[in-house]
């Protein structure tokens, strides 16, 4: 099978198998996207930089691109189409915020043909990725594009307050109109780099209702699994060091609060797992396949927004280590329950689903048939809490859990100390039994004796008149097995002593 066919394009001689979206061939959609973005971004460079104003979020620019060309647009072999750009100045600000220069943006999107990806979801959307692995282009429905437009002011505010986020990073919203058909597309960051093989990929919602990959999906070379699959495959979860774990959970909690404030639900965490221990041979193959583009102007980052940067931000020690080593592609280091070294790539996706009337009706209907708390569609506050609880308790864990078992040396020292303490208790018990009558005849009441006994048992700073710890430790090696039960019989000895004294 050719590489074109593998990437979703049509192989030579099989043009009839080319995918279509709204009765439009995917090749025509890809061509129109590149022509439209090339024109609108190039035209935007002539506009001066300034602060983003409220009205900028609602601006829509439009240009007509006939197939024969015009004074402003080049000729092309696709049907005539109109290309709309939504909030161009606002999205220019978003791109600048993530360090994306206009020339690099144009080069990534327009220099090489776009590569079509398979869609594991049920939305029917088309996915394209740029040849340099930088950006994802996704077709969206009218309601999703409309919701993103309304979301932009709040999205702008959130990015200003906190650029460290696992939320999708939107770089552009466009619409192609041809033959009475509107095809809306959004340009986003690429969460899972293709140059890094993902041994496992999961789409996690924190829901269990029908959250298992279909048989058709499992037959793919790189399937995307779901929540029930993760619980079966990674039942012990994924482990991080304390600093990384805290940074990750803080980022997820903050992002979920933002989504809840926008009344957004049904989103997912897209999680890619690369097993470092399994990639020694793969690394050589990837090195030969990923030859850097000599024509590319300047040195560009592997990814504009890596997973590690999303949770820790630039300048952190862990992030510096990751970005300096390009082999890691900005992945988050982790370990499996078997101790395997992992690199994780993740991001929150599908956030353009608001809790509208149809979603409320869908949840009500499913709740009548199934357990309402297990279905994916739910009110935003409950969805966020369930999502976070699932990530915190089932998916991500602190690495200390792997180090709970003490070393053999530590086990031996603990056993010796336990035997020593039991010998001390045995000595004290024997002394109390032998000196019982002497203490009573000297006029000491039992109550004071009881206080002394309790004090010596619960106050480690009160040392009884017994051999030193050093001497007791040397004696511990010769203790018989019967001394292990002294601690259990000791309370009974005290009870006997109390009854006899009365």
UniProtKB/TrEMBL annotation:
Organism: Molossus molossus
UniProt main location, coarse: cytoplasm
Localization: Cytoplasm
GO CC field: cytoplasm; plasma membrane
Pfam families: PIP5K (PF01504)
TM spans (from-to): none
Recorded GO MF terms: 1-phosphatidylinositol-4-phosphate 5-kinase activity; ATP binding
Alphabetical UniProt keywords: ATP-binding, Cytoplasm, Kinase, Nucleotide-binding, Transferase
InterPro entries: PInositol-4-P-4/5-kinase_C_sf, PInositol-4-P-4/5-kinase_core, PInositol-4-P-5-kinase_N, PInositol-4/5-P-5/4-kinase
SMART domains associated with the record: PIPKc
PIPK domain mapped to chain residues: 25-395
Name of this chain's protein: Phosphatidylinositol-4-phosphate 5-kinase type 1 beta
UniProt xrefs under SUPFAM superfamilies: SAICAR synthase-like (SSF56104)
Annotated stretches, region: Disordered: 1-21
């Amino acid at each position: 099978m050719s590489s074109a066919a593998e990437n979703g394009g049509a192989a030579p001689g099989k043009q009839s198998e080319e995918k279509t979206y709204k009765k439009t061939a995917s090749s025509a959609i890809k061509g129109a996207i590149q022509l439209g973005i090339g024109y609108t971004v190039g035209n935007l460079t002539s506009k001066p930089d300034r602060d983003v104003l409220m009205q900028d979020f609602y601006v829509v620019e439009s240009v007509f691109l006939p197939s024969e060309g015009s004074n402003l647009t080049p000729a092309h072999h696709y049907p005539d189409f109109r290309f709309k750009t939504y909030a161009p100045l606002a999205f220019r600000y978003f791109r600048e915020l993530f360090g994306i220069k206009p020339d690099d943006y144009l080069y990534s999107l327009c220099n090489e043909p776009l590569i079509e990806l398979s869609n594991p979801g049920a939305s029917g959307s088309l996915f394209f990725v740029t040849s340099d692995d930088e950006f994802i282009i996704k077709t969206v429905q009218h309601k999703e594009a409309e919701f993103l437009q309304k979301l932009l002011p709040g999205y702008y505010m959130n990015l200003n307050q906190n650029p460290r986020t696992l939320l999708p990073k939107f770089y552009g919203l466009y619409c192609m109109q041809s033959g009475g058909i509107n095809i809306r597309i959004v340009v986003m960051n690429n969460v899972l780099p293709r140059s890094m093989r993902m041994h496992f990929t999961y789409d996690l919602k924190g829901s269990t209702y029908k959250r298992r990959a279909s048989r058709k999906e499992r037959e793919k070379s790189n399937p995307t699994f779901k929540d029930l699959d993760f619980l079966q495959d990674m039942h012990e979860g994924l482990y991080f060091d304390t600093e990384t774990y805290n940074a990750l959970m803080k980022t997820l909690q903050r992002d979920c609060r933002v989504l809840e404030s926008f009344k957004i639900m049904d989103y997912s965490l897209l999680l890619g797992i690369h097993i470092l221990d399994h990639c020694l041979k793969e690394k050589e193959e990837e090195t030969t396949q990923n030859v850097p583009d000599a024509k590319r102007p300047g040195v560009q980052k592997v990814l504009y927004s890596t997973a590690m940067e999303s949770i820790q931000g630039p300048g952190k020690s862990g992030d510096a280590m990751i970005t300096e080593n390009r082999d890691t592609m900005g992945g988050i280091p982790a370990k499996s329950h078997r101790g395997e070294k992992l690199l994780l790539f993740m991001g929150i996706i599908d956030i353009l689903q608001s809790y509208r009337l149809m979603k409320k009706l869908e949840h009500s209907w499913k709740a009548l048939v199934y357990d309402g708390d297990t279905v994916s569609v739910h009110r935003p506050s409950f969805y966020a809490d369930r999502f976070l609880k699932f990530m915190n308790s089932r998916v991500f864990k602190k690495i200390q859990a792997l180090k709970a078992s003490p070393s053999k040396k530590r086990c031996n020292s603990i056993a010796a100390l336990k035997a020593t303490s039991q010998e001390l208790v045995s000595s004290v018990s024997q002394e109390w039994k032998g000196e019982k009558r002497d203490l009573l005849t000297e006029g000491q009441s039992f109550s004071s004796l009881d206080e002394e006994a309790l004090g010596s048992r619960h106050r480690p700073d009160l040392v009884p008149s017994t051999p030193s710890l050093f001497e007791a430790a040397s004696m511990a090696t010769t203790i018989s097995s019967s001394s292990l039960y002294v601690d259990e019989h000791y309370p009974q000895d005290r009870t006997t002593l109390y009854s006899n004294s009365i």
